[in-house]
UniProtKB/TrEMBL annotation:
The keyword Magnesium is annotated on this UniProt entry: no
Matching Gene3D superfamilies: Immunoglobulins (2.60.40.10), Listeria-Bacteroides repeat domain (2.60.40.4270)
Domain Gram-positive cocci surface proteins LPxTG: 1088-1120
Protein known as: PI-2b ancillary protein 1
């Protein structure tokens, strides 16, 4: 035999036929068997050899399913039952000739990790197997997590048992049980106040309530917690009482921190009694007067108006029985009550007893400010010769602000109106002597103005109770209609502070989002919190068993929230094959076609069921198919393996991939066919046959590959064109895919010879089309997706172009393949610079498709902590998507973690929430595949990101709350703790000044001197400035003249008293958090009474009198 080379002439010395047969050199065939005995072929492929006859084979992507459940695949061996290759050999095995490799299996023991009920949010850990000669530490998982619990270790029994030692070598299958210690878990107490619009006789079922705030408490997970009386009364305001029927006094603490318990405050029923008869002594009014039969009685809910209850204030001058201290009863004058709000010194707390005090000689006019800023007369009262008037708050939502005194003839006693406040006393009589020495006493009339209060409406994030960006706090006048304060969400919608949530389109009264906020109401006499409604993002998960049968407990589609995990679909089989005479049908309920919502996938003989495919019949064959695995179906239809460990961050379609069990055989037929695959016939119409067909003794798995064998002997007058398989012509030694669907009942796959008459052989030329397969190239100034080469003679050679021939954003060109489907899976048939021969296939088949590999980019996650020194050593936990890694990971301040991620991968990282920190997330994308400039943007709450370059994700945790403990002590001995001090605490306004209304009022120090707040001896204060007003000093101590201040910043707390900064004591609470303790000092002594009547400061309000009604004319009269 003489060698011939393409492109070189053949010397012809006589007339005869010359057969040129292909001879392949510089390749080696690698055969991978599916079993250690070498009976079935898993894969067979060719490795190119260099000029020295050497090449390398990469075996890292080839795995074999073990023949039994107790065996593990550990690698490949060059001999049957031999030693496994090293890891370096698996990556690059030297090859110089054909080689057969056999799988190596080793016995193992199974380890089950029972973490508990998955519905509680506990981490699922899939079972693992450990080799019999290796310690269990090789398969030790990361510690699981469970909301509300601390992991206590792995044990040999669900309860009790012994701690498991992972350093041991197992001797049997083992089940390990996670033990858990209950952790401190939060629960929420919501407080509700009865609405002022309720009927005073409403039953509990008829009462309505407004949200009044909440506090967070903690207790052991799954324990039943009884509310303390301090917790029940924590937000009990004046004029209210606890509704013991509706109030929930205990709560089962859920381990996910979602427990909510509700406390209800009812308005007290206030009683006003007007005595019908006058002239009695104080003693008789108190002890002997019949206040039931001899009095007119008004009743109404606290804070409601007399008018709303059908009453009108009785004219006349009145006094009331009052507790004047030291267990003494006295009387004070009562000018007017317009609402059911009583002075705090009535003898009975919920009842005021009024008695006539004589004829009215003084007139008191009370003006209330309207929404437009002007004042109008609200009520008129009177006095019967009072010498002094005490200003009180008479209207909810208003503060007494100004007063002016007049003589009875409307001449002015005060030239200008003066500012005042509740509790201030002023004289309302004028004694003097005229020029003649005559004594005079005038009783003064009084005009009092009540200013309408404004309160704040805050738009808050229910996840952390902080203000929503782009929704600023607004000041709203009392009784102002709130419809204009409904946020305009057409231009900006509220954005959750954590990923996995979206706005549900509603606003709520309470942080727990149990009651929708109604903006068609008016502003109440207190600040209003409005919470954006968040709902967890729900994703659609579709499960395609692809002919497999699921257990009845597994669904074919699921709706899961962001961050949930798909349950592991391990109980799936496929024991049926198509058979026209079979008696089984396949039922598959897809999301879009499941009228009964059964969500099933199984084989059945009942073809009347819904979603049963009656067009195909099946018969039962045990283990007919082996599960290759579950695969994620990308939007473009491509697939990648899925391992059920990642969190759900988007819609997911999963598909089971199968291969039929092995023992498929290739049979080379002698029945010749033409280039169209139809039988080749002779002149008599009989099918032509070849002889000397090759024989393949090997067995193959479904989905494996085989290299076709040599040509057969041709009948006279015909030449061999190739082998016909699955609708295509292949040359000898081409690689084909083993497709079980093409096998007959005996698992034989038939290959037929393709022949052509000698007379039809023509000297032809052809061309090659290079298809970009998603890539592009610039040719003559035009962007093209396919390039056709100039015509070339058949059997000539050409060189595969370089890997920059086409470009595709985010991908590297790594080779070419004549089959587009295989090119899309990443399989390379030809590489750059490789010399290939031009065959005589039809031009349409001479197309090579680019094989692309996604570029790999770096995703770097970094952590910055702005807070206390202790915060910088704290581990902050992250839950990454399964496209990054399967387990969560911690980061501390200044730490980073890197991942290598292919282009186009969807990733997400969700940091676990911490109430005392606000998380901001910044992303920088650089080295972008598109060539764009680097870009940095705020990504707080971003749910997912598609990688298109290197990604730096920076998480910054800024402390937004500090715990502050205030302790009252003697200035001379700070170990002498002072009980009974009373404080009001105020926030600061936008200018840093003290707010008009306290956030806490009436806080009292205990016997340790500690200020109690909602049953805690510390305050949890958001970042900001706060003012402390001591309203009552401990007995025997002086009341400070000046407010104290607390400044809370992310990195600490400062406390100022009398212009001096106090040194804090930093301590750790039982939960590990830091509290700043400051000592507030008081000096012993007794307050001296103030002198100077109404004071020395006169406030002039120019033009205030213009707000009075036109019928009231005032004059200023000098004393004569």
């Amino acid at each position: 035999m003489t060698d011939s080379k393409f492109g070189e002439p053949i010397t012809v010395t006589e007339t005869k036929e010359i057969y040129v047969r292909p001879f392949m050199s510089k390749v080696a065939t690698v055969t991978l068997y599916d079993d250690s005995a070498g009976k079935s072929i898993l894969e067979r492929y060719q490795v190119p050899l260099d000029s020295s006859g050497n090449g390398t084979a990469d075996l890292s992507s080839f795995k074999v399913s073990p023949p039994t459940s107790t065996l593990l695949f550990v690698g490949w061996s060059k001999t049957q039952n031999g030693a496994p290759l090293s890891e370096s050999e698996i990556q690059a095995l030297p090859v110089s000739s054909d080689i057969s490799l056999y799988p190596v299996f080793k016995e193992s023991y199974g380890v089950e990790f029972n973490t508990g009920d998955l519905s509680t949010g506990v981490t699922y850990i899939a079972p693992r197997r450990v080799l019999t000669d290796q310690p269990a530490s090789t398969i030790k998982p990361n510690d699981p997590t469970r909301p509300g619990y601390t992991f206590a270790g792995w044990y040999t029994a669900a309860s009790g048992g012994t701690a498991f030692d992972f350093n041991q070598v197992l001797t049997k299958d083992t089940t390990l049980y996670a033990h858990w210690s209950p952790a401190q878990t939060t629960y929420t107490i919501n407080y509700w106040q009865q609405s002022a619009t309720d009927n005073k006789n409403a039953t509990d079922a008829q009462k309505t309530y407004e949200y009044a705030g909440q506090v967070t408490r903690s207790g052991l997970s799954l324990s039943n917690q009884t509310l303390t009386q301090q917790d029940i009364n924590a937000k009990l305001p004046t004029g209210f009482k606890v509704n013991n029927t509706r109030t929930e006094t205990s709560v089962m603490i859920k381990d996910d921190g979602s427990s909510v318990v509700n406390v209800y405050y009812d308005r007290k029923l206030i009683t006003i009694k007007f005595a019908k008869y006058s002239g009695y002594s104080l003693y008789n009014y108190y002890y002997n007067y019949n206040w039931n039969s001899d009095a007119d009685t008004y009743t109404g809910l606290y804070g409601t108006t007399l008018a709303a209850n059908g009453y009108q204030w009785k004219t006349g001058a009145w006094g009331y029985l009052a507790n004047v201290g030291n267990n003494q009863v006295g009387t004070y004058g009562m000018s007017y009550l317009g609402e059911f709000i009583l002075p705090n010194d009535t003898v009975d707390s919920d009842v005021i007893k009024l008695f006539p005090k004589g004829n009215i000689v003084q007139t008191y006019r009370f003006f209330k400010q309207g929404l437009d800023g002007t004042y109008s007369l609200a009520d008129t009262g009177g006095g019967a010769g009072a010498d002094e008037f005490t200003f009180t708050e008479k209207y909810l939502g208003f503060n007494v602000k100004y007063y002016q005194r007049l003589y009875p003839d409307n001449y002015l006693f005060d030239q200008y109106a003066s500012q005042t406040s509740a509790g201030v006393k002023v004289p309302i009589s004028d004694e003097y002597y005229d020029r003649y020495g005559a004594y005079h006493k005038d009783y003064l009339d009084l005009v009092v103005w009540y200013e309408r209060n404004s309160y704040k409406i805050k738009y808050l994030d229910p996840l952390d109770n902080t203000e929503l960006p782009n929704f600023p706090v607004k000041d709203v006048l009392y009784e102002q209609n709130l419809s204009s304060y409904a946020p305009d969400t057409a231009t900006a919608q509220p954005k959750p502070s954590r990923p996995g949530y979206v706005w549900d389109g509603k606003w709520y009264k309470d942080q727990a989002q149990t009651q929708v906020f109604d903006f068609n109401t008016t502003m109440p006499p207190h600040d209003v919190k409005v919470y954006a409604g968040w709902q967890k993002v729900t994703y659609r998960v579709n499960i395609d068993p692809n002919g497999g049968q699921l257990s009845k407990t597994d669904d074919t589609y699921l709706d899961l929230h962001y961050g949930d995990r798909i349950p592991d679909y391990t109980d799936i089989t496929r024991d049926y094959i198509q058979d026209p005479s079979g008696t089984y049908y396949y039922k598959y309920d897809s999301r879009d076609k499941d009228p009964d919502s059964t969500k099933d996938a199984y084989y059945t003989t009942d073809n009347s069921l819904s979603n049963v495919d009656t067009t195909t019949k099946y018969k039962y064959v045990k283990d007919a198919y082996k599960l290759v695995g579950w695969y994620y179906v990308n939007p473009d239809g491509s697939i990648r393996p899925y391992n059920f460990s990642g969190a759900v961050t988007q819609d997911i379609n999963l598909r089971a991939i199968w291969r039929k069990a092995g023992d498929y055989h290739i049979i080379y037929s002698n029945d010749a066919v033409g280039t169209d695959g139809k039988p080749a016939l002779d002149a008599s119409g009989q099918q032509l046959q070849t002889s000397n067909e090759p024989t393949d003794p090997d067995s193959y798995d479904d989905g494996s590959h085989s290299a076709l064998l040599r040509r057969p002997t041709m009948p006279d007058g015909y030449r061999f064109r190739g082998w016909w398989y699955n609708g295509k012509i292949y040359n000898p030694y081409d690689s084909i895919d083993i497709d079980a669907h093409l096998a007959d009942a005996n698992k034989n796959i038939t290959i037929k010879p393709v022949i052509i008459p000698v007379g039809d052989i023509k000297l032809e030329d052809t061309s090659i089309k290079y298809n970009g397969n998603g890539g592009t190239r610039v040719e003559n100034g035009n962007v093209v997706t396919q390039v056709e080469t100039p015509r070339m003679e058949l059997n000539s050679t050409t060189t595969i172009p370089e890997n920059q021939y086409f470009t595709r954003t985010g991908y590297n060109l790594i080779g070419w393949h004549h089959d587009k489907d295989l090119a899309d899976t990443g399989r390379v048939e030809f590489t750059a610079g490789q010399s290939i021969g031009i065959d005589n296939n039809p031009d349409a088949t001479n197309t090579l498709y680019a094989v692309w590999q996604p570029k790999e980019y770096t995703v770097r996650v970094s952590k910055t902590v702005v807070g206390l020194d202790e915060d910088k050593t704290k581990d902050f936990l992250f839950n990454p998507s399964e496209t990054l890694q399967q387990e969560n990971f911690p980061l501390r301040d200044g730490q980073t973690k890197e991942f290598k991620v292919p282009y186009g991968t969807s990733i997400s990282i969700d940091e676990q929430a911490y109430d005392e920190f606000k998380v901001s997330e910044s992303i920088t994308e650089k080295n972008l595949a598109t060539g764009e400039a680097d870009k940095t943007y705020d990504a707080t709450g971003l749910q997912s990101l598609t990688v298109s370059g290197d990604v730096d994700i920076s998480f910054t945790n800024t402390r937004i709350k500090q715990k502050v403990r205030l302790q009252k002590v003697n200035v001379e001995n700070d170990n002498n703790f002072l009980a009974g001090a009373v404080f009001d605490i105020y926030e600061s306004d936008a200018n840093g000044n003290k707010a008009s209304h306290p956030m806490y009022s009436g806080l009292v120090t205990n016997d340790k001197g500690l200020l109690l707040v909602d049953a805690n001896n510390y305050l949890s204060l958001p970042v900001g400035k706060y003012y402390l007003t001591e309203t009552k000093a401990p007995p025997g101590y002086l009341l400070p003249k000046n407010d104290m201040s607390v400044l809370v910043i992310s990195t600490g707390v400062t406390f100022e008293q009398n212009g001096n900064n106090a040194t804090p004591i930093k301590e750790n609470l039982v939960d590990g958090s830091t509290v700043y303790t400051f000592k507030i000092t008081n000096s012993k002594g007794t307050e001296l009474p103030s002198t100077g009547g109404i004071g020395t400061h006169i406030y002039i309000l120019v033009g205030l009198a213009l707000a009075l009604p036109s019928g009231l004319i005032l004059y200023y009269r000098k004393k004569i």
